Amino acid sequence: MATLKDVAAECNLTVTTVSRVLNNRGYISKETRAKVEAAMKKLNYRPNEVARSLSKKSTNTIGVIVPHIRHPYFAEMISNVENAASKKGYKIILCNSRGKDEMERKYLEMCSSNRVAGVILFSGGVAVEDFVGSNIPIVTVERFLESGTAGIECDNKEGGELATRYLIENGCKTLLHISGVTGNAMPADDRAKSFVSVCEECGVKYYTASSEVEVYENQDYHDFLTKVLTEHQDVDGIFASSDLIAAQLIQVLTKMGKSIPKDVKIVGFDDVSIASLTTPGITTIHQPIKEMATAAVDVLVAASEGKTVAKRTLLPVSLVKRETA
Amino acid sequence: MATLKDVAAECNLTVTTVSRVLNNRGYISKETRAKVEAAMKKLNYRPNEVARSLSKKSTNTIGVIVPHIRHPYFAEMISNVENAASKKGYKIILCNSRGKDEMERKYLEMCSSNRVAGVILFSGGVAVEDFVGSNIPIVTVERFLESGTAGIECDNKEGGELATRYLIENGCKTLLHISGVTGNAMPADDRAKSFVSVCEECGVKYYTASSEVEVYENQDYHDFLTKVLTEHQDVDGIFASSDLIAAQLIQVLTKMGKSIPKDVKIVGFDDVSIASLTTPGITTIHQPIKEMATAAVDVLVAASEGKTVAKRTLLPVSLVKRETA
Question: Which chain B residues are Cβ-neighbours of A64 within 8 angstroms?
């Protein structure tokens, strides 16, 4: 790899002059600039960002830690975070914790060692106390973290209400809520809480079910759903806490000979690509993924510049009507 | 952020001694080591990887450039690349070119400036000649690049044959092949070539159709598919060049009143998560995504260490029977 010195030698100028051209500092004649640029091109010179970063306190890099890359919700989030970061001149280091405590900790240390500007930490079940002393801004998305810099969430409470009321308004008499993970307290838990309170308010019969962590990790809910639906044959309306679960509900119900939305109506959550790729398409609660990703990057960059940022940002959701309800 | 000097001051030792503990060099007593480690923990010290990288020729970072993050095929690839890289102690910088020439070039320059060990470049329609002089290994996946270091591909020719023969064996009389993008030459083009040659060999009537670049970018094939299927009402077997297209074919055909697989049989390509989430599930050609991702990382790391690597690696495909055919 060519160095600044090589470029200077190539065009018979001093390193100082070449550096001034590179950094747009001081007066440089048009001819000198052209000469330097030609030499850089010829030697295929690229400024060394590693060296530049060393003189600054941090790099223009954002660590992004997700529990699953290939889960459609996180894939969409990552895509939007990368886009928002790129627009601000930041690059992202992507880390897949696989929902594991020790992986998350390892990745946080790696991010810290690599002097990232900050870390965006996506929902995952882990409470990592080590974060406290990490000195770098940590922005969480759909996750509680007392010691984090800032949290971005969608209005899960409102989403749960919208979904449940829509099923009741459409004539459902016996409702079921299916959530992805049990155990750790997460903002998404508000979806189930809203479901229960709307059912009780309206005097509608209801069941709730949540899967084991292993099922969430494999992203294969078929056996779990078959078991739950066999136990509760009277259910005619289901609020699933993700579109991934809703897609598998369509498969399991179809195999059981039920017609959707005639026999059973379904409302999902997330509004990721899968919701518009199933047959029938999934009626769902739209999470403002693009806005959440942009907010996470904005807050992180502001915090890394020492600015005061909102401790919590709550973004609105909406109901998207497709064919399952 | 605490420095090595801070740690040395904290435990009343020299920077040299602390550095020896950190790098496991020379004899260090158990007591000294414990003292240094306690100080590091107290000050929350993290070794500066940026400084370490500067003394080496490159970083333990791999640039990963994809045309779409949220496309299920690339999401799955990214997940597997991250996993393979992580196991080898490498981190990934993820870049979304959105299939754009200038974005890809910009990201390649960024990767080069950040002294990555190499770049893994995923299928995208762009021919970037600038790569030639970049001096860093470039491994392509499902993409031709004369000047790249190495290419990883699945056996697209075999995949096209398997899919087409399976439709014919299952009684289809009029076949249609739908491919994602036209224009740039890509290894995936072999799928269509195999389709045509098997149809001609077996004397089966066939059509082919490929979408515009815009459709591929939006990932919304509904209008395009409706148009093609309205033109060719006699089709009873379709080979789609991706599961994403196959999922949308199920939707469009269902809306046209056709039953799958009774009236029309479908075979997809990729075997990504969407193939097992639709109703009915998609019969498809399995790409060995995990093995391709691992091979890409292995080849890249070997090349970055100056080893001689295979110019081209071709991995086998297989037919996965689900419900659409």
Answer: 94
Q: Which residue has the higher pLDDT, B257 or A129?
A: B257
Is A39 among the domain residues?
yes
Tokens representing residue B277 in the block: 């989430």
Together in a domain, A106 and A165: no
| Inter-chain Cβ pairs, chain A and chain B, closer than 8 A | 143
Give the chain A residue nearest B248 (alpha carbons): A277
Of the candidates B14, B37, B32, B282, the residue with the CA atom closest to the CA atom of residue B163: B282
The answer to whether position A20 is within a domain reads: yes
Flag if B135 and A247 touch (Cβ within 8 Å).
no
Q: Is there a contact between A90 and A62 (Cβ–Cβ < 8 Å)?
A: yes
**Distance separating the N- and C-terminal Cα atoms of chain A:** 60
Q: How buried is B122 (Cβ within 10 angstroms: 0-12 exposed, 13-18 middle, 19+ buried)?
A: buried
- pLDDT at residue B159 in the model: 97
pLDDT at A316: 96
Could you tell me if B209 and B105 lie in one domain? Answer: no
Residues B216, B183 within the same domain:
yes
Q: Which amino acid is at B146?
A: E
Residue B250's nearest CA partner among B277, B231, B232 is B277
Q: Interface pTM (ipTM) of the complex?
A: 0.83
> How many whole angstroms separate alpha carbon A120 and alpha carbon A118?
7
DSSP A224-290: HHHHHHHH-TT--EEEESSHHHHHHHHHHHHHTT--TTTT-EEEEEE--GGGGTSSSPPEEEEP-HH
Residues of the domain holding A100: 60-154+289-313
Residue with tokens 């190495």: B150
Do the beta carbons of residue A150 and residue A312 sit within 8 Å?
A: yes
Q: CB distance A96–B109 less than 8 Å?
A: no
From B145's Cα to the closest Cα of chain A, the distance in A is 19
N-term to C-term CA, chain B: 60
Give the residue from A86, A127, A142, A132 showing the smallest Cα distance to A112: A132
Whether B310 and B280 share a structural domain: no
Question: Does pTM top 0.90 for this prediction?
Answer: no
**For residue B52, is it within any domain?**
no
What does pLDDT average to in each consecutive run of 10 residues of chain A (325 residues)? 84 87 83 88 78 72 92 93 95 90 84 87 65 74 79 95 97 94 76 96 95 76 94 96 95 95 97 93 97 96 92 95 95
Helix (H) or strand (E) holding B286, with range, is: strand B283-286
Rounded distance, CA A73 to CA A75, Å? 6
CA distance A143 to chain B (A): 21
Residues of B in contact with A247 (CB under 8 A): 277-278
Summarised one tens digit per residue, pLDDT across range B48-101 is: 777 776 666 678 899 999 988 988 899 999 999 999 999 999 999 999 988 887
**Is residue A3 within 8 Å of A22, Cβ to Cβ?**
no
